[in-house]
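User: Let's play a game. I give you a shape written as tokens, and you guess the letters that built it. Ready? Here's round one.
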């Protein structure tokens, strides 16, 4: 798996300058690492879970398609452009925190490509959604500030160029605008169709595992939500603690099944490219399907009774 090197001189100089400042004030590295966490995939997934499984199921569906569409576009562009990360191309730039934190920083397959920034895409996509749905100025300002700081953290840590984060911000906002508009004007089925039309081709040309994980989540939720509507039809809750417990339970189901399937599939020869891609899709599809379509059947046993007024 190889990549392309292209960069502007000002981008390299900017990253070098910021990393020089970080070397003078080491605590800044921890600040940027903390900021970049807000762009991790776990954040939009948890927010989606709070809505879909807890507070507002229909808004959760719209948020899911919003998030997934942004990730589909971002990952497909990564695999089309194939821009390697700054620290691969420049000895003067350090990787202060790998994109895939627990994997080999020098393994392109595990770390993925640079353009656009997935973290920036996610946080701007999420910010667009909440600004669109919310009219409180203080909350909207919060999302704008956090999004900008996450974007800055990505090239400060050496894993993206500034143009990567600019593209990520644009994709996050535009993808959110398109999906929310289609969902609101033409309905949920039209929004699903749009996402699948863009997602299916990526299975054949995307080489990074992130895309196939996203595709698996999309397929799993589509069928899980279908089963939920027909056979489960759980009720949303105003109780935030109950909503949180529902999300924790779903997370345990998803992670547990994913780990189990990973162990089971490790017994097969997955060196073949197509087999490996398919294994990611299967793992994430099954985990998502059970966490969103079957697990909610338990909600009637975990329901908190409403407080009676005195």
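Assistant: Ready! My guess for every position:
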């Amino acid at each position: 798996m190889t990549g392309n090197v292209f960069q502007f001189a000002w981008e390299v100089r900017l990253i070098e300058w910021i990393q020089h400042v970080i070397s003078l004030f080491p605590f800044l590295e921890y600040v940027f690492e903390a900021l970049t966490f807000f762009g991790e995939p776990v954040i939009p997934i948890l927010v989606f879970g709070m809505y879909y499984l807890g507070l507002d199921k229909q808004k959760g569906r719209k948020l899911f398609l919003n998030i997934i569409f942004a990730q589909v576009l971002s990952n497909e562009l990564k695999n089309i452009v194939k821009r390697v990360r700054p620290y691969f191309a420049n000895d003067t730039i350090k990787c202060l925190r790998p994109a895939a934190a627990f994997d080999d920083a020098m393994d392109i397959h595990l770390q993925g490509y640079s353009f656009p920034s997935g973290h920036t895409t996610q946080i701007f996509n999420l910010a667009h959604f909440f600004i669109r749905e919310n009219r409180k100025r203080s909350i909207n300002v919060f999302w704008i500030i956090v999004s900008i700081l996450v974007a800055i953290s990505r090239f400060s840590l050496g894993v993206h160029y500034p143009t990567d984060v600019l593209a990520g911000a644009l994709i996050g906002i535009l993808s959110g605008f398109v999906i929310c508009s289609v969902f609101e004007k033409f309905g949920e089925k039209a929004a699903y169709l749009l996402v699948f039309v863009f997602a299916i081709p990526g299975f054949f040309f995307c080489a990074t595992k992130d895309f196939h994980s996203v595709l698996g989540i999309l397929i799993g939720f589509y069928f899980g939500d279908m089963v939920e509507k027909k056979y489960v039809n759980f009720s949303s809750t105003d109780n935030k603690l109950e909503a949180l417990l529902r999300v924790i339970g779903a997370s345990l189901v998803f992670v547990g099944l994913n780990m189990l399937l990973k162990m089971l599939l490790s017994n097969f020869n997955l060196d073949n490219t197509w087999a490996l891609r398919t294994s990611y899709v299967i793992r994430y599809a099954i985990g998502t399907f059970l966490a969103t379509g079957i697990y909610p059947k338990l909600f009637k046993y975990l329901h908190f009774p409403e407080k009676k007024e005195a």
